[in-house]
Amino acid sequence: MAASAASPLAGLGPGSLAGYWRFQRAVAKAQLAAWLPAERWVLVDISGPYASGSAQAAASGHCVIRALPALPAAAHPRAARTRPGTITPVVADPASLAFLSDGCADGVIAEDGALSRQLMTEDLAAEITRVLRPGGGLFACVDSLVLGMAILAEQHHWAHLTDLPHAEVVLIPWPDGTITRSFGAGQFRDLLTEAGLEVSWIRPRTVLSPSMVDHVLRREPGAISRLVEAELEAEQDGSAGVSPVESFGISLLATARKPPARRADPARRPTGRLG
Q1: 20 to 30 A Cα–Cα from 209, which one of 52, 144, 224, 274?
Q2: What three-state secondary structure class fits 199?
Q3: Residue 190, helix vs strand vs coil
Protein backbone atom coordinates (compact mmCIF):
# COMPACT_ATOMS: atom_id res chain seq x y z
CA MET A 1 0.00 0.00 0.00
CA ALA A 2 1.62 3.25 -1.09
CA ALA A 3 1.58 6.28 1.18
CA SER A 4 -0.76 9.10 0.25
CA ALA A 5 -2.48 11.95 2.00
CA ALA A 6 -5.49 9.73 2.67
CA SER A 7 -3.59 6.49 3.30
CA PRO A 8 -2.89 5.09 6.79
CA LEU A 9 0.74 4.78 5.74
CA ALA A 10 0.98 8.55 5.60
CA GLY A 11 1.13 8.48 9.37
CA LEU A 12 3.62 5.62 9.61
CA GLY A 13 7.12 6.68 10.50
CA PRO A 14 8.77 10.09 10.32
CA GLY A 15 8.46 12.45 7.40
CA SER A 16 12.13 11.82 6.70
CA LEU A 17 11.08 8.79 4.62
CA ALA A 18 9.70 11.03 1.86
CA GLY A 19 12.56 9.89 -0.37
CA TYR A 20 11.62 6.26 0.11
CA TRP A 21 7.98 6.84 -0.84
CA ARG A 22 9.14 8.60 -4.01
CA PHE A 23 11.35 5.59 -4.75
CA GLN A 24 8.51 3.15 -4.07
CA ARG A 25 6.20 4.98 -6.49
CA ALA A 26 8.90 4.83 -9.16
CA VAL A 27 9.35 1.09 -8.56
CA ALA A 28 5.58 0.50 -8.81
CA LYS A 29 5.46 2.40 -12.10
CA ALA A 30 8.34 0.35 -13.53
CA GLN A 31 6.77 -2.94 -12.40
CA LEU A 32 3.42 -2.11 -13.98
CA ALA A 33 5.12 -1.00 -17.21
CA ALA A 34 6.91 -4.36 -17.40
CA TRP A 35 3.63 -6.25 -16.90
CA LEU A 36 1.47 -4.34 -19.40
CA PRO A 37 1.35 -6.12 -22.80
CA ALA A 38 2.12 -4.53 -26.14
CA GLU A 39 -1.34 -5.36 -27.52
CA ARG A 40 -4.34 -3.31 -26.44
CA TRP A 41 -6.15 -4.78 -23.45
CA VAL A 42 -9.40 -4.08 -21.64
CA LEU A 43 -8.30 -3.62 -18.02
CA VAL A 44 -10.29 -3.35 -14.79
CA ASP A 45 -8.54 -1.27 -12.13
CA ILE A 46 -9.83 -1.80 -8.58
CA SER A 47 -6.91 -0.05 -6.88
CA GLY A 48 -9.01 2.84 -5.57
CA PRO A 49 -8.97 6.59 -6.03
CA TYR A 50 -5.36 7.28 -5.02
CA ALA A 51 -3.46 4.88 -7.29
CA SER A 52 -2.00 6.01 -10.63
CA GLY A 53 -2.09 2.73 -12.56
CA SER A 54 -5.16 3.64 -14.63
CA ALA A 55 -3.52 6.72 -16.12
CA GLN A 56 -0.32 4.80 -16.83
CA ALA A 57 -2.18 1.94 -18.53
CA ALA A 58 -4.33 4.31 -20.59
CA ALA A 59 -1.24 6.25 -21.66
CA SER A 60 0.13 2.93 -22.96
CA GLY A 61 -2.96 2.49 -25.15
CA HIS A 62 -5.18 0.29 -23.00
CA CYS A 63 -8.90 0.70 -22.27
CA VAL A 64 -9.34 0.95 -18.50
CA ILE A 65 -12.52 0.50 -16.46
CA ARG A 66 -11.71 2.18 -13.16
CA ALA A 67 -13.87 1.05 -10.23
CA LEU A 68 -14.14 3.76 -7.56
CA PRO A 69 -15.84 3.71 -4.16
CA ALA A 70 -18.98 5.77 -3.60
CA LEU A 71 -17.16 8.87 -2.36
CA PRO A 72 -18.43 12.41 -2.87
CA ALA A 73 -17.73 13.57 -6.41
CA ALA A 74 -15.21 16.14 -5.16
CA ALA A 75 -13.09 13.34 -3.68
CA HIS A 76 -12.72 11.52 -6.97
CA PRO A 77 -9.76 12.24 -9.21
CA ARG A 78 -10.83 14.09 -12.34
CA ALA A 79 -11.48 11.67 -15.20
CA ALA A 80 -8.83 12.64 -17.73
CA ARG A 81 -9.09 11.92 -21.44
CA THR A 82 -5.85 10.03 -21.89
CA ARG A 83 -4.56 9.23 -25.37
CA PRO A 84 -4.27 6.77 -27.00
CA GLY A 85 -6.18 4.72 -24.40
CA THR A 86 -9.28 5.53 -22.38
CA ILE A 87 -10.37 5.53 -18.74
CA THR A 88 -14.01 4.85 -17.85
CA PRO A 89 -14.70 5.58 -14.17
CA VAL A 90 -17.45 3.49 -12.54
CA VAL A 91 -18.71 4.08 -8.99
CA ALA A 92 -19.01 0.58 -7.54
CA ASP A 93 -18.55 -1.41 -4.35
CA PRO A 94 -14.81 -2.22 -4.29
CA ALA A 95 -15.59 -5.56 -2.66
CA SER A 96 -17.72 -6.71 -5.58
CA LEU A 97 -17.36 -6.78 -9.34
CA ALA A 98 -21.02 -7.67 -9.89
CA PHE A 99 -21.38 -4.86 -12.43
CA LEU A 100 -19.03 -6.75 -14.78
CA SER A 101 -19.92 -9.77 -16.91
CA ASP A 102 -18.05 -13.06 -16.92
CA GLY A 103 -14.81 -13.05 -18.91
CA CYS A 104 -15.09 -9.40 -19.95
CA ALA A 105 -11.56 -8.29 -18.97
CA ASP A 106 -8.14 -9.05 -20.38
CA GLY A 107 -6.52 -7.99 -17.12
CA VAL A 108 -7.16 -6.71 -13.60
CA ILE A 109 -5.00 -4.25 -11.67
CA ALA A 110 -5.32 -4.43 -7.87
CA GLU A 111 -2.69 -2.00 -6.60
CA ASP A 112 -2.41 0.10 -3.43
CA GLY A 113 -3.41 -2.78 -1.14
CA ALA A 114 -6.84 -3.22 -2.75
CA LEU A 115 -7.01 -6.88 -1.70
CA SER A 116 -5.75 -6.10 1.80
CA ARG A 117 -8.53 -3.57 2.34
CA GLN A 118 -11.17 -6.29 1.82
CA LEU A 119 -11.31 -8.57 4.85
CA MET A 120 -13.19 -11.25 2.85
CA THR A 121 -10.38 -11.26 0.33
CA GLU A 122 -11.27 -14.72 -0.95
CA ASP A 123 -14.60 -13.44 -2.30
CA LEU A 124 -12.93 -10.60 -4.20
CA ALA A 125 -10.26 -12.95 -5.58
CA ALA A 126 -13.01 -15.24 -6.88
CA GLU A 127 -14.72 -12.25 -8.52
CA ILE A 128 -11.45 -11.28 -10.21
CA THR A 129 -11.15 -14.78 -11.65
CA ARG A 130 -14.75 -14.63 -12.88
CA VAL A 131 -14.36 -11.36 -14.81
CA LEU A 132 -11.05 -12.37 -16.40
CA ARG A 133 -11.17 -14.04 -19.80
CA PRO A 134 -9.30 -17.35 -20.07
CA GLY A 135 -5.63 -16.43 -20.30
CA GLY A 136 -6.26 -13.00 -18.75
CA GLY A 137 -3.83 -11.59 -16.21
CA LEU A 138 -3.79 -10.12 -12.70
CA PHE A 139 -1.33 -7.56 -11.30
CA ALA A 140 -1.90 -7.35 -7.55
CA CYS A 141 -0.18 -5.95 -4.47
CA VAL A 142 -1.01 -6.71 -0.83
CA ASP A 143 0.27 -5.60 2.57
CA SER A 144 2.96 -7.96 3.83
CA LEU A 145 3.44 -9.50 7.25
CA VAL A 146 6.47 -7.23 7.62
CA LEU A 147 4.19 -4.20 7.40
CA GLY A 148 1.61 -5.81 9.67
CA MET A 149 4.19 -6.49 12.35
CA ALA A 150 5.49 -2.92 12.11
CA ILE A 151 1.98 -1.50 12.61
CA LEU A 152 1.34 -3.79 15.59
CA ALA A 153 4.68 -2.93 17.17
CA GLU A 154 4.07 0.79 16.63
CA GLN A 155 0.90 0.44 18.72
CA HIS A 156 2.47 -1.92 21.31
CA HIS A 157 0.12 -4.79 20.45
CA TRP A 158 2.58 -7.38 21.76
CA ALA A 159 0.00 -10.15 22.25
CA HIS A 160 -1.07 -9.84 18.61
CA LEU A 161 2.57 -10.03 17.52
CA THR A 162 3.05 -13.26 19.49
CA ASP A 163 0.02 -14.87 17.84
CA LEU A 164 0.81 -13.65 14.33
CA PRO A 165 3.09 -16.55 13.18
CA HIS A 166 0.29 -19.05 13.92
CA ALA A 167 -2.65 -17.10 12.46
CA GLU A 168 -4.29 -18.28 9.24
CA VAL A 169 -5.81 -14.82 8.68
CA VAL A 170 -3.85 -11.79 9.84
CA LEU A 171 -5.98 -8.70 10.52
CA ILE A 172 -4.16 -5.49 11.38
CA PRO A 173 -5.81 -2.61 13.30
CA TRP A 174 -4.45 0.78 12.25
CA PRO A 175 -4.27 3.88 14.47
CA ASP A 176 -7.09 5.53 12.49
CA GLY A 177 -9.48 2.62 13.14
CA THR A 178 -8.98 0.97 9.75
CA ILE A 179 -8.54 -2.81 9.69
CA THR A 180 -6.56 -4.38 6.87
CA ARG A 181 -5.31 -7.85 6.07
CA SER A 182 -1.63 -8.77 5.78
CA PHE A 183 -0.18 -11.75 3.93
CA GLY A 184 2.92 -13.88 3.91
CA ALA A 185 4.15 -15.05 0.53
CA GLY A 186 2.62 -18.50 1.02
CA GLN A 187 -0.73 -17.08 2.12
CA PHE A 188 -0.80 -14.76 -0.90
CA ARG A 189 -0.02 -17.64 -3.25
CA ASP A 190 -2.74 -19.80 -1.66
CA LEU A 191 -5.27 -16.97 -1.99
CA LEU A 192 -4.72 -16.70 -5.73
CA THR A 193 -4.42 -20.40 -6.54
CA GLU A 194 -7.55 -21.26 -4.53
CA ALA A 195 -9.39 -18.62 -6.57
CA GLY A 196 -8.45 -20.56 -9.71
CA LEU A 197 -5.47 -18.48 -10.89
CA GLU A 198 -1.99 -19.61 -11.90
CA VAL A 199 0.67 -17.57 -10.07
CA SER A 200 3.58 -16.47 -12.25
CA TRP A 201 5.66 -14.94 -9.45
CA ILE A 202 5.54 -13.19 -6.09
CA ARG A 203 8.06 -10.46 -5.27
CA PRO A 204 8.54 -7.97 -2.47
CA ARG A 205 8.06 -4.27 -2.80
CA THR A 206 10.66 -3.35 -1.93
CA VAL A 207 13.82 -5.42 -1.45
CA LEU A 208 15.85 -2.31 -0.66
CA SER A 209 15.05 -1.06 2.84
CA PRO A 210 13.38 2.30 3.45
CA SER A 211 16.24 3.53 5.65
CA MET A 212 18.89 2.60 3.08
CA VAL A 213 17.00 4.19 0.18
CA ASP A 214 16.31 7.35 2.14
CA HIS A 215 19.96 7.58 3.21
CA VAL A 216 21.18 7.28 -0.39
CA LEU A 217 18.68 9.84 -1.71
CA ARG A 218 19.60 12.32 1.00
CA ARG A 219 23.22 12.16 -0.12
CA GLU A 220 22.47 11.91 -3.84
CA PRO A 221 18.92 12.99 -4.83
CA GLY A 222 19.50 12.07 -8.47
CA ALA A 223 20.22 8.41 -7.69
CA ILE A 224 16.59 7.29 -7.81
CA SER A 225 16.81 5.77 -11.32
CA ARG A 226 19.83 3.68 -10.31
CA LEU A 227 18.06 2.57 -7.13
CA VAL A 228 15.00 1.49 -9.13
CA GLU A 229 17.24 -0.49 -11.51
CA ALA A 230 18.96 -2.16 -8.55
CA GLU A 231 15.58 -2.99 -7.00
CA LEU A 232 14.25 -4.64 -10.16
CA GLU A 233 17.43 -6.68 -10.57
CA ALA A 234 17.33 -7.81 -6.94
CA GLU A 235 13.72 -8.96 -7.27
CA GLN A 236 14.61 -11.32 -10.11
CA ASP A 237 17.43 -13.18 -8.37
CA GLY A 238 15.17 -16.17 -7.70
CA SER A 239 14.30 -19.12 -9.91
CA ALA A 240 11.10 -20.97 -10.83
CA GLY A 241 9.11 -17.78 -10.34
CA VAL A 242 9.94 -17.45 -6.64
CA SER A 243 12.15 -14.71 -5.25
CA PRO A 244 14.43 -15.76 -2.36
CA VAL A 245 13.53 -12.49 -0.63
CA GLU A 246 9.78 -12.59 -1.31
CA SER A 247 9.00 -12.31 2.41
CA PHE A 248 10.79 -8.95 2.67
CA GLY A 249 9.26 -5.57 1.85
CA ILE A 250 6.22 -3.80 3.22
CA SER A 251 4.17 -5.12 0.28
CA LEU A 252 4.05 -8.27 -1.79
CA LEU A 253 3.44 -8.06 -5.53
CA ALA A 254 2.16 -10.94 -7.65
CA THR A 255 1.26 -11.57 -11.24
CA ALA A 256 -1.08 -14.40 -12.12
CA ARG A 257 -3.33 -15.51 -14.94
CA LYS A 258 -6.57 -17.34 -15.46
CA PRO A 259 -5.84 -20.70 -17.12
CA PRO A 260 -6.61 -20.80 -20.85
CA ALA A 261 -9.77 -22.59 -21.89
CA ARG A 262 -9.23 -26.26 -22.61
CA ARG A 263 -9.70 -27.40 -26.17
CA ALA A 264 -11.86 -30.42 -26.88
CA ASP A 265 -9.86 -33.62 -27.38
CA PRO A 266 -10.34 -34.71 -31.05
CA ALA A 267 -9.82 -38.32 -29.98
CA ARG A 268 -12.95 -38.12 -27.81
CA ARG A 269 -15.15 -36.34 -30.35
CA PRO A 270 -18.67 -37.89 -30.55
CA THR A 271 -19.11 -40.20 -33.57
CA GLY A 272 -22.78 -39.39 -34.10
CA ARG A 273 -23.74 -43.05 -33.95
CA LEU A 274 -26.60 -44.19 -31.74
CA GLY A 275 -26.40 -47.12 -29.41
Answers
A1: 52
A2: strand
A3: helix
